[in-house]
Specification:
This protein has one domain: 2,3-Dihydroxybiphenyl 1,2-Dioxygenase, domain 1 (Roll). The protein is an alpha/beta fold. The termini are far apart. It has a four-stranded mixed sheet. The protein has a two-stranded antiparallel ribbon with strand order 3-4. The chain is built from six helices and six strands. Its cofactor is Mn(2+). Its EC number is 2.4.1.101.
């Protein structure tokens, strides 16, 4: 379950979230008073695929290994410029990486994809090291919205495809 911590509480610590949500929102009335229910919460579905977690090697999820694992996935994603991102996302195969400069830039890009734009305590919601990952058009391909500072943290070259 996602638990948001302020900077003074999280002390620089990160945690990873499952791509399949382990929680289920069963109604639109709650702390957000239904503000985000239709757009962001209603489409969330429970996992229906049985997974034998005990038989899987999950050692790559340990902190020292996961940062490197995650950085490699982001590095392999095809970098694209912010111009016409929807058209590019629709026409380029595979994972994509889009760099945002600041909060305003992130919100602009996120709004084009219908991604939750809220920031808390200086970072986008659901970000891991400043990177927000989402699936595009109900496919397995991912789009990584990468903060400029994240490039340094993950040791990624700042380049993009036209």
């Amino acid at each position: 379950m996602f638990v948001y911590l302020l900077k003074e509480n999280h002390k620089g610590r990160q945690f990873i979230r499952p791509e399949v949500c382990r929680t289920y929102n069963f109604g639109e009335h709650g702390s957000s008073l239904g503000q985000f229910f239709k757009q962001y919460l209603e489409p969330i579905k429970l996992n229906e695929v049985k997974v034998d977690w005990k038989s899987m090697d999950l050692s790559y999820l340990l902190e020292d290994k996961y940062s490197m694992h995650f950085a490699n996935i982001v590095k392999k994603a095809k970098p694209v410029s912010r111009a016409d991102v929807i058209l590019k996302a629709s026409s380029i195969d595979g994972d994509l990486r889009i760099i945002y400069k600041d909060q305003s830039d992130f919100k602009n890009i996120a709004s084009q994809f219908g991604v939750f734009q809220e920031w808390k305590d200086g970072v986008p919601r659901t970000a891991y090291k400043g990177v927000v990952v989402f699936r595009y058009q109900q496919t397995t391909r991912r789009i990584f919205l990468v903060g400029a500072e994240s490039l340094r943290l993950l040791q990624i070259e700042d380049s993009y495809a036209g």
